[in-house]
């Protein structure tokens, strides 16, 4: 069984105090389901991914980041062996994830098929607990957090099963759960379902909340449930519900003024290598110009200081809050 008070990185356990400045939702690499079937048309170059990861680590280090949560779920090209290689080569803490992406963009078919004749909540719980405590697919490399995800405007039966399994696995392992919400919807519903399924609110972070940076009521609906929230699509401008980074910062300051500073997390959801054919065209789309792992260091930290936050406040958001996902008063 796992020790609930330590953080499991791909290199092994560390004390929460050693996490340091942490980005809670990024991807060294990511592949939508389907990329494997297209392999005839692209060449998998692991060294290229490792080289790109080196530049990513440099950009994070430039503003003091010591730990990255790679939130790539099981069905989107996750590779813990490669994450460990990156972590070792560049001496960066990397926490890997157990979880499944939302039904529309994940690989739901496998467990939906199994749900016809088997209890998939039980199967997913076993999977998550095994990955968190023993390792992924015989590698001995363990995941450290879980991810759940929901669709825009609804939580499907399949997504509900993945959420119930994550909550059950958390009760056994103590691992935090971080989430994906779609287009700024279902945050409160997702949080409520996690809590109703037995999750500890102090170990839940509802993600992509910054997609509703104009909507204080939505933010408070989620925060009142006792969970954390992540403003974790920083850098994407007007890609999601007409939101800019200035809107995001204004809302962070607003929520801090209301006393929620210890439950807000910042990240980018950057994808630094797309498994599959060349996807550089994506990064030329309008709104993606600033969407990269440098952005918090270059724009958000100065912007928050300009808005009157202290360096301590910034350190709270980026360094201290994450520790408390492991140090709860349970
Ligand atoms: Zn993501």
Would you write up a description of this structure?
With 330 residues, this protein is of the alpha/beta class. The chain has a single domain, classed as Alpha-Beta Barrel (TIM Barrel). The chain is 35% helix and 13% strand. It contains ten helices and eleven strands. The strands form three sheets. The chain has a six-stranded parallel β-sheet, covered by helices on one side. A three-stranded parallel β-sheet has the order 3-4-5. β3, α1 and β4 form a beta-alpha-beta unit. α1 packs across α2, α4 packs across α5 and α5 packs across α6. The longest helix is centred in the middle third of the chain and has 17 residues. It is globular, with a radius of gyration of 18 Å. The structure holds zinc ion.
